[in-house]
Amino acid sequence: MSKSHEPLLLVEEKTKAVILTMNRPKVMNCLNFDLLYAIRDQIDALQYRTDIRAVIITGAGEKSFCAGADLKERAGLTPGEVKKFIITIRNLLTSIQNLPIPVISAVNGIALGGGTEVALASDIRIASQNASMGLTEARLAIIPGGGGTQRLPRIIGVAKAKELIFTGRRVDAKEALEIGLVNKVAKPGALLDECMEMAEMIGQTGPIAVEMAKYAIDKGIETDLATGLAIESNAYRVTIPTEDRIEGLKAFREKRKPRYKGR
């Protein structure tokens, strides 16, 4: 708990979606150990929730999504504790990426360093028009340590990722959209509505299908095409014996909305 007794992470459930809001607006929602642990606990619990179809991660306030690591906390840490922090954030972001349900980052303002890395670990990024993103670590004589050097080139390509990481420069929402760093840009007041709309569209699909599609994409992108196709084939096979697949065909035939149960 912070001094104001406000929880560091706000958790809200809304029609099959969970909204996680990093809640340290006075320090631009930067990440300290306690906030990382709070997010980790939620992600761990969400792994087993079959009723939740999407997770939305955002920051409290209008200005900042997450400004990265808490450098005030960092200044008081020993090298061993810094190592522990990096391992904690790296493991957390891997568990976000591996979540069987889609994760949407609602980038509502400044996202720097670890803040951009949280967004990179998500499946979909929607930015507010006033968002600004960047892996700025080189300016502090370090490199991204929460997976940024690996996820950014996979998302926007090697050449552009090198440019952004070597210079540490920030990109605004418009450029982020142009280079494929974000999927969509929304007006600041409409950002969460856009994310919920996306979550609701995901919520209409077959849960096992989405889980398998995410698995096939994430594992397949790491390998050659032939192996990727084999991964897809196995993931497809999982969907064949499901009740949902039969329900989908039935609903199509009966011209009604399918009622998927994740079975």
Biggest pleated sheet: 6 strands, mixed
- According to DSSP, the number of beta strands is 10
SSE sequence, one letter per element: EEHEEHHEEHEEHHEHEHHHH
Alpha-carbon distance between the termini?
A: 39 Å
Mean pLDDT: 96
CATH first level of the largest domain: Alpha Beta
CATH superfamily of the largest domain: 2-enoyl-CoA Hydratase, Chain A, domain 1
Shape: globular
The Cα radius of gyration reads: 19 Å
Percent range of helical residues: 40-55%
Tally of helical segments: 11
Largest sheet strand order: 1-2-3-5-7-10
What is the CATH architecture assignment of the largest domain?
Alpha-Beta Complex
How many separate domains make up the residues?
Answer: 2
CATH topology category name of the largest domain: 2-enoyl-CoA Hydratase, Chain A, domain 1
Determine the structural class based on helices, strands and strand pairing.
Answer: alpha/beta
Low-confidence stretches: none
The amount of beta strand, in percent, is 15-25%
